[in-house]
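INPUT
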Amino acid sequence: MNQILDKIFAHATKFIALSVLLIVAWIFTTLFEQSLFSLQASGFDFITETLWAPNLEKFGALPAIYGSVVSTFLAMVLAVPIAIGVAIFLSELAPAKLKSPVGVSIELLAAIPSVIYGMWGLFYFVPIVRDIFGGVGISMLSAGIVLSIMILPFMAAVTRDAMNTTPDILKESAYALGGTKWDVIKDVIIPYAKAGIIGSFILALGRAIGETMAVTFVMGNVHKISTDLTQPATSIPVALANEFTEADTQIYYSSLFELSLLLLVISFTIISIAKFYFLRRKRVGA
Amino acid sequence: MTHTQKRIIINKVVMSLSTLSAMIGMTFLFWILGVLVINGIEALNWTTFSEVGAPPGYEESGLKHALIGQLYIVGVAAFAGVPLGILAGTYLSEYGQKSRLAEIIRDVSDIMMSAPSIVIGAFVYAIVVTPMGHFSGWAGSIALTIIMLPIILRTTDDMLRLVPATLREAAFALGAPKYKVILQVVYRGAKVGILTGVLLGVARVAGETAPLLFTSFNDNFLNTDMSEPMASLTVTMYNYATSPYEDWQKLGWAAAFILSMFILGLNIIARVFLMKKRGK
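OUTPUT
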């Protein structure tokens, strides 16, 4: 009796664990199947065509791809230096009394859902962007900034964790040689934790590019490529969030599924690079 | 200026910049938190909980429909996702261990944890909403279950591996079969850790909006039938906040406040558990 139960339990758990792989494979094949109609209709033109006009049944994803790339790039440019600053502050500078409360509040802020960052952006930040930079405020710029604020807590927390892995003895040796704090940071901590820090940034990039709610509020979903950052724009997830329930033709649906597939492939690639190239066996469960 | 003086000055400049950036970061984050609390408390009153959504302009308007919908959608997702995640994690830690298969499942789960949740929504749309012909609470729960599974799987795996091997060996020595050792010894030893993972997993999916937009959709009335479209706090918040009506926007802030407090609460409880575990 016990032997039978033992086998059942072992097989059941194995089957459920395997189902994770099955689900992922199922997601890829389903999205691919749903995109087939659009893939056959437009092929590679889908990612180079700039016109997205559902009424004309023209679907070009370039504006959305452009928007995803530019807004994510903006977010990274703004968030990386601040995240490094916060991480240095938390791991090397802050007095012990501040370290824990500031660190914990940053971690808690990373848990706040992105929809709330988006809502704050719409009501409080868009008007500021409008007043300072002109335009309507709903823009690529607002999206980039709100996105940078949203990924900041996550980035700062993981960068700090990576810096904290530096053995104290290494730091102490450098101080004993007369190094200043900055000398120790740039010559000991950063070289030691480099892989972890870069990996965390790429992981944050992978999350930012798929982030939907923080940017949907403030981007405007306009399929137009403009170098003017104060103009409304769109990104892949923003287009999906806005248009999925509006799609009325097969080609429209199929194009949206092709966008989803594109997004999934891009994020899978970025996250895999972070995980396999930089974070291999360093962080469990990052 | 000597080399040493130069180094000291550079050090001071960099340290000031770092403190400044920490202050900038904290200012933004506390600004958001402040806005959330002030607007949330101002918008909250008894009718928020006792009434369902009304057209703009009505006094008696609340979030009861969204609160109950949220409870159903997240509740069903947790009901399915928690046991599945724990069992899958059990396989990784107790059976698969360092095997090739277990490592692949770990890696794929890690990637899934950071994958865009809106894509999961699109997937569930294709496999559930299209065949059913309409949006439904079930579809929302399925999307959230898929998102929750890898989180709970990975924390369970990590927490079970912390249980000392000697405990398992002692139970085996008494003649206990493996499933009994796992159920009665390993789980007991990792109880707090697993619970923490569950809390964090639930907190994570409770804040998800994107995968619900085109699965559970929305409903302005109280609905407890999971096979129909269902309101959730997050989607309601999105719709109300982007509406032009001031009283709807206010309800949106109330929803944002309730949701954030719930999620922060779960995170704090999980943290206290972990601290106690480490303190032991």
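end of record. The mean pLDDT of chain B is 92.
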